[in-house]
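Thread amino acids onto this structure.
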């Protein structure tokens, strides 16, 4: 260990051994970065974060069983001090949004150069974000594209919408969900607003048209 340098302890999470080996070798080349541990599943990552308390996690998103987004969310909820960098080959907007919403501070593609990755780790440890240029482009494209109807419905509003499509009245929905009628009225009003519908019938038609219910 180099004297006077505070090392940033990094946990590598990836289900491919070759990727983990490559990242571990990369960490050993930097005086201020230290390999804290390795995990090949989301569950193992959650357990290791509790026991070794790394500063930064390099998190693959495509993991078996508990995926990287779920693992990120769990770790951030339990250990807010630990910063997580999503390190993946995929730039799908849903993955990007999911990882950032789960609490990842940065989103980096695996074809990143060693210097850029080291810089991203240092920034993450300092609480600062890094987004790959292609990811910024993806987010800009997503923001500039109109959201499809119903994308902003809450889980409860979706439940109510399903029952509306089934033809239930507000009192019947209240009975089914075991909530007050006023609560159902509130949810139905929100549904009409979010779907741009003037009536329950129009809301049902839009739900069917846009495949908002199974």
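Threaded sequence (214 positions):
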């Amino acid at each position: 260990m180099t004297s006077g340098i505070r090392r940033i302890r990094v946990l590598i999470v990836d289900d491919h051994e070759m990727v983990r080996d490559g990242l571990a070798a990369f960490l050993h080349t930097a005086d201020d970065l230290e390999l804290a541990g390795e995990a090949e599943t989301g569950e193992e990552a959650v357990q290791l974060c509790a026991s070794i308390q790394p500063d930064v996690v390099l998190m693959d998103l495509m993991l078996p069983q508990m995926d990287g987004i779920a693992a990120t969310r769990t770790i951030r909820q339990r250990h807010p001090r630990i910063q997580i960098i999503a390190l993946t080959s995929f730039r799908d907007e849903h993955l990007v949004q999911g990882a950032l919403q789960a609490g990842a501070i940065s989103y980096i593609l695996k074809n990143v150069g060693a210097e850029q990755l080291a810089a991203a780790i240092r920034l993450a440890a300092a609480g600062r974000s890094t987004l790959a240029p292609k990811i910024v482009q993806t987010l800009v494209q997503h923001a500039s594209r109109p959201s499809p109807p119903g994308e902003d419905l809450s889980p409860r509003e979706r439940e109510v919408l399903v029952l509306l499509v089934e033809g239930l009245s507000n009192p019947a929905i209240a009975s089914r969900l075991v909530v007050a009628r006023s609560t159902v009225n509130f949810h139905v009003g929100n549904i009409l607003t979010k779907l741009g519908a003037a009536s329950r019938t129009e809301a049902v038609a839009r739900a069917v048209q846009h495949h908002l219910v199974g």
